[in-house]
Amino acid sequence: MAEAIRHLKAVDPKLSELIDKTKEVCVMSLPRDSVDDSSFVSLSQSIVYQQLAGKAAQAILLRFLRRFGEPKSAGAGSPPDRDDPSLGCDDFVFPSADVVATLDVDEMKAVGLGQRKAEYISAVAARFNDGTLSDERLAAMSDDEVSRALVAIRGIGQWSADMFLMFHLKRPNVLPTLDLAVRKAMCAHFGVPFGKKTPSHEQMVEMGRAWEPYRSVASWYMWRLAGTITQKS
């Protein structure tokens, strides 16, 4: 991270000012993620959170975990009761892909997942269960290969693939050109007009070329800038 910050400050003086003004420390992780999460868990949770407010998604995830996951043992003795109201998402082990692959869509809908999300999670589980995808295979793939493998699964688009690359695989050079906040912030940063169709993917790649090979970190700072823009508007 230190090398990424040094590079970005050297190649982009305006970004250097933003970095110096930002009080938060750049961490390429999401609040819901654990360092122990597998790729299957990360992708499944991202589907649960799609198009939902954080609290609503967390409530559905907790019901999913209570029904299909296993409570974590706190030490010696029997594991806690899965229905204990004091337990949260972090107190459960997410079910493995082979378990989820056996679940009926209606079973998953019973805990609050919509039809499509249940189908999407089933599709992800099937890929991991049959060995098409695995932590090892994904780690060995290039960014483009990971993207192609993921967007081939119904329910995972390029934006979700970019978030997985950045925050789960920790790839340093991802530019999420479909992210609205990043698009708006880059326009403000580079003085380019923002519109429904602008900037294009190609324009964003060109604008961010100097940030390579640390576009993921630069994008993190664009999210910080987007928050500042929203507060001022």
Note the topology.
Layout: H1 2-11, H2 13-21, H3 39-49, H4 54-68, E1 70-71, E2 92-93, H5 97-100, H6 105-109, H7 115-129, H8 135-140, H9 143-151, H10 158-168, H11 180-190, H12 201-207, H13 215-232
Antiparallel strand pairs: 1-2
Helix pairs in contact: 1-2, 3-7, 9-10, 11-13
Task: Explain what you see.
This protein is an all-alpha fold and 233 residues long. The protein has 13 helices and two strands; from the N terminus they run ααααββααααααααα. The protein has a two-stranded antiparallel ribbon. Helix 1 (2-11) packs across helix 2 (13-21). The radius of gyration is 20 Å and the shape is elongated. The model has no long low-confidence stretch (mean pLDDT 91).
Give descriptors for this structure:
single chain; 233 residues; mainly alpha; 2% strand
Uncertain spans: none
Query: In this structure, how is the largest beta sheet organized?
Result: 2 strands, antiparallel
Outline type:
elongated
The proportion of residues in beta strands is: under 5%
Mean pLDDT comes to: 91
Distance between the termini: 31 Å
Q: Report helical residue fraction.
A: 55-70%
Number of contiguous helices: 13
Give the tally of β-strands.
2
Lateral arrangement of strands in the main beta sheet: 1-2
SS class: mainly alpha
Would you summarize the structure shown here?
The chain contains 13 helices and two strands. It is mainly alpha-helical and 233 residues long. A two-stranded antiparallel sheet has the order 1-2.
